[in-house]
Amino acid sequence: MNDTPRAAPRTFDTYEDVPGMRPCIKKPVIVHARRIDQPFRVRSLEGDFKLGKPGDVLMRGIDGELYICDADIFARTYDWTA
To answer: Structure pTM?
Structure first.
């Protein structure tokens, strides 16, 4: 058994200015999505349910998992391709 104490993990505040951050761009990855016009829920990877509001978007991630994207965030982040 190793009794060497571990350092506590570093905590960053939500809007902290972190030195050394560099600009980058998200890779173009095609995901599949569908706008849902009624309340809905998705069983998350953690096993609990996440609730979607009418107008939110149900998406399939790159590993096949379903998740909910808020309609406003979807509009700022994605464009429909077809």
So the answer is: 0.70
